[in-house]
Each structure stands twice: as C-alpha cells, then as structure tokens.
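A.,

Following up on our hallway conversation. Structure tokens first:
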C-alpha cells in the first residue's frame, strides 16, 4: 500500500472545523455536521479535478479566392468608362440623326452589360 499523501492546509482546516463543530453541537447536529463536511470535501475535490478553462481559437475558414467578396470598384470603373466614351460617341452619332444615336446607345448598353457580366463571373 502506498504511503498517504499529506493533505492541503485548507482540507486540514475544514476537518478541524468540522470536528470542533461536531463536538460542540452535540448529538442532535452531528449528522448535519458530517454531511456538511462531506459536501465541502466533494466541492474541493471537484475544483481540483476540473481542467482549467482554456480559450479555444478557431481559425477562419480558408475561402477560395473566387468565393471572396469583391469590391464594386472594377464595376464602377467599367460604368464610368462607358459613360465617358458615350459622350463623344453620341456627338459623332448625332451626324446620322436619331437613328445613329439610338444605334450608338444600344451598342453602349450591350457592351456595358457584357462587360459587367464578365466581371461577375470572376
């Protein structure tokens, strides 16, 4: 049989206090003193056996480059470019009347739509 380990000071103090209360209170309270002492020992043992709480660091999921949220700046740049080019194209198309202007603007809208769809795929 292994030699008994020395008990911590707090356990010794609890036992001494329980024995003192056991002797002073008399037979009417002896069962309550014993139960209280055993409950306190259970609490102390549970506190010693509980593993320390360590913070858990969860790494951020690795999101593929194609799934990351994109900023709207390339689309904004594309729309600004279309508008900037639309001004001189409209002036040139004005020489051909309303039909030239309509064809020019339909072309600008189609190019703008295709350009923005191509950017959304990436």
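Then the amino acids I'd put at each of the 122 positions:
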């Amino acid at each position: 049989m292994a030699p008994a380990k020395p008990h911590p000071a707090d356990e010794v103090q609890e036992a001494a206090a329980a024995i003192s209360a056991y002797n002073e209170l008399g037979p009417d309270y002896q069962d309550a003193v014993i139960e209280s002492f055993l409950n306190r020992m259970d609490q102390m043992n549970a506190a010693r056996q509980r593993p320390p709480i360590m913070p858990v660091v969860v790494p951020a999921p690795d999101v593929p480059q194609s799934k990351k949220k994109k900023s709207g700046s390339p689309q904004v740049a594309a729309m600004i470019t279309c508008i900037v080019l639309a001004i001189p194209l409209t002036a040139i198309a004005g020489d051909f009347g309303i039909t030239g202007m309509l064809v020019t603007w339909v072309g600008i809208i189609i190019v703008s739509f295709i350009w923005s769809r191509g950017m959304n795929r990436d």
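The CA atoms of residues 80 and 96 lie 25 Å apart. Curious whether your intuition agrees with the design.

B.
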